[in-house]
Structures are given as C-alpha cells and as structure tokens.
Amino acid sequence: MEFCSSFLLGFVVVALINWNGSNALSSNYYEQTCPMVESMVTNAVKKAMLNDRTVPAALLRMHFHDCFIRGCDGSVLLNSTATNQAEKDGPANISLHAFYVIDNAKKVLEAMCPGTVSCADIVALAARDAVHLSGGPSWVVPKGRKDGRFSIASETRQLPAPTFNISQLQQSFSQRGLSMDDLVALSGGHTLGFAHCSSFQNRIHNFATTQDVDPSMHQSFAASLRRVCPMHNKVNNAGANLDSTPTTFDNRYYKLLLEGKSIFSSDQALVTNPTTKTLVAKFADSRQEFEKAFVESMIKMSSISGGGQEVRLNCRVAN
Ligand code: HEM
Ligand SMILES: *[C@@H]1O[C@H](CO)[C@@H](O)[C@H](O)[C@H]1NC(C)=O
Ligand SMILES: *[C@@H]1O[C@H](CO)[C@@H](O)[C@H](O)[C@H]1NC(C)=O
Ligand SMILES: *[C@@H]1O[C@H](CO)[C@@H](O)[C@H](O)[C@H]1NC(C)=O
C-alpha cells in the first residue's frame, strides 16, 4: 500500500513535469549550452547606456510590448518585409527604440553559442538589466522562450492605451493572466522614461466639453505640460518625462501619482479604485514593497507564453 501510493505519486509528478516540459521556463536553461549568456547581455546593455541614458527605458518598454502581443516571443523585434508590416511599424510604436542593443548582444551570443539563445530571452534579460542598472532590483529571469515567426502591425492595437480607465486596464491585463496587483506594480515601469505629447494630449486639451484639462491633474503641473505641448504642437520630439527622476528606478512615480502629477490617464486611473489606490499608497510609502511586487509581477509578465518555435539567428528576421 505504502509502496503503491508513493509509486503513484511519483508517476503523477513525472507526468506533470513532462506536461510542463514543452514550454516551461527555467532559470538554468542555458547552464550547459551557453553559460555566459547573462553576462554577455549585461555587457551589451551597459555599453549602450554609456552613450545613451534612454536605453534602459526603451528596453523595459520593449519587453512589455513583446509580452503583451503574441506572448514573449520576440515578435516586437522582427522587421517588416515586402509583404508584411511588422509590430515595430504599427500604431503605438512611438517610443520603441534601442533595438540595436539586442542585435549587439545577439551577435556576441551567436559567436559563442550559435543557434542557442532566443531573441525573446535576450529581451527579457535586457529588461531585467535595464531595471537593475538604473538602481532598481535584480532577479533571476526564467529562460527558454522560443522566438515566433510572425509580427503583425495591426495587432499592436491590442496594447493598453494611455487613455484607458481602470476597467479597460483590468480587462487588458486579465486577458493575459495578470491581476490588478500586477497592473499597479508594473505601471511602476513608468518610473523610467519619457512620453511624447500625443500620448497625454487627451488630458491637457479638450479633456471634456466643459473642462479643457483633466481636473484630477495637479493645476500647475498641467499648466507646465500645456506649455511644452501646445494644442497644435509642431515640435517633433516634444513631451515629458514619466517622473521627475526618469533614469532612476525608484518609487517616485507613485508619490507623484498621489499628487496628481502622473502623465497618462492610465496612471491616474490607478487611484480611481479603492483597492488599486491602497497599493499605490503602499508603494509610494515603501520602495522595498514596490520592488518586491515589481519583481514578482515582471516574472509573471515575462512568462506569458507565445507560439514561438525557433531560435532566430538574426533577431530582425525569422529563420
Ligand atoms: C498599464 C498600461 C500601460 C500603458 C497604457 C502604457 C502606455 C505608455 C505610453 C503611451 C508610453 C509613452 C509612449 C510615448 O509617447 O513615447 C509609455 C512609455 C513607457 N512605458 Fe508604458 N504603458 C503601460 C504599461 C507599462 C508597463 C507594464 C511597462 C513595463 C513594466 C511600461 C514601461 C514603459 C516605459 C519604460 C516607458 C518609457 C519608454 C521610453 O522612454 O523609451 N509601461 N507607456
Ligand atoms: C531592419 O530594419 C532596419 C531599419 O529599417 C534596417 O536598418 C536593418 O538593416 C533591417 N535589418 C534586416 C536584417 O533586415
Ligand atoms: C513606427 O512606424 C512608422 C510607420 O511605419 C515608421 O516610419 C517608424 O520608423 C516606426 N518607428 C520605429 C521606432 O520603428
Ligand atoms: C471605462 O470606459 C469604458 C469604455 O468607454 C466604459 O464602458 C466604462 O464604463 C468605463 N469604466 C469606468 C470605471 O469608468
């Protein structure tokens, strides 16, 4: 009887492992096949940061876009072709840049361990490094993603928009297995980077028929945004930083959010619901609590599975 039940238990455990085996990620995935993978990606990110302080924000947003469209399968990296317009040329591509950092890491990795490390894994590692090298937490990234062969511009319409309210955000996240807690923690990614005027124009011009400016926005903050982004803005790259310390990964974003000094309606939406507002206050209060939650939610987001089947040789082209 004893023997029988432990035998059965063993069988169930093995079956579960096999069932997961096809697409489960693991932290030691490249231990035998490419042990230097993490340090090579870190080097590429560090090197790029020396010349351009906007690189970390770009890499973090790149991973978010990758995971929200077709799962984390490197689809955000594919170039358009003669017959197909890719995600990077689709709507909402406005802030995507620094693809060259992924290319540089990939080139080194192809020389060291050809055909082994997926582009999707490089993006996940680069996003982690971007956070850590900006003064944020570090964590162990589960690896083993496969690259997809498709990238379709129109699918980027499925990304959450900066004009979204709390229920639209909740729906967008829950469709991908992410909770309201994940929404609040991951929105903290807006501690890094910049937004173009077009992304928050809805809040500072013609907000509603009776109010030109979103009344939930701090008055003088709104006025300063209106000066940088007039109604008919002609300056190409005009915009605003997402928080007052845009190259430091800290909890400033949440503090400003409580003061009505967030940039997007989707940020402000987090304080329109009692549950999410409580979390915002907690993260504004404690950088440690924020970092802990952010790491947990990043690992969840970066595990959204895609339909990838290959390890691309060039991150911009399907094999
Ligand atoms: C909750 C839904 C989200 C919405 C609606 C949203 C929307 C946006 C928009 C509109 C921009 C600015 C684009 C531009 O004008 O250049 C932006 C920038 C950014 N987002 Fe989000 N985002 C969301 C979630 C996230 C998540 C989950 C992350 C990562 C964890 C993230 C990281 C970033 C970063 C780092 C930037 C700055 C990019 C740069 O400066 O290059 N966002 N986001
Ligand atoms: C991908 O597109 C970029 C930008 O248009 C171009 O510079 C690059 O050469 C392309 N790469 C490949 C492999 O097609
Ligand atoms: C965004 O898409 C437009 C239109 O296809 C394209 O001209 C532009 O280069 C793209 N931006 C990036 C960063 O790829
Ligand atoms: C959010 O916007 C949608 C679509 O406009 C609307 O149906 C919904 O009632 C709004 N929810 C909240 C909480 O405002």
From TrEMBL:
Ca(2+) 1 binds at D66, G71, D73, S75, E87. Heme b binds at H190. GO terms for cellular component: extracellular region. Keywords: Calcium, Disulfide bond, Glycoprotein, Heme, Hydrogen peroxide, Iron, Metal-binding, Oxidoreductase, Peroxidase, Secreted, Signal. Its cofactor is Ca(2+); heme b. CDD domains: secretory_peroxidase. Ca(2+) 2 binds at T191, D243, T245, D250. Removal of H(2)O(2), oxidation of toxic reductants, biosynthesis and degradation of lignin, suberization, auxin catabolism, response to environmental stresses such as wounding, pathogen attack and oxidative stress. These functions might be dependent on each isozyme/isoform in each plant tissue. Belongs to the peroxidase family. Ascorbate peroxidase subfamily. This is Peroxidase. The lineage of its organism: Eukaryota, Viridiplantae, Streptophyta, Embryophyta, Tracheophyta.
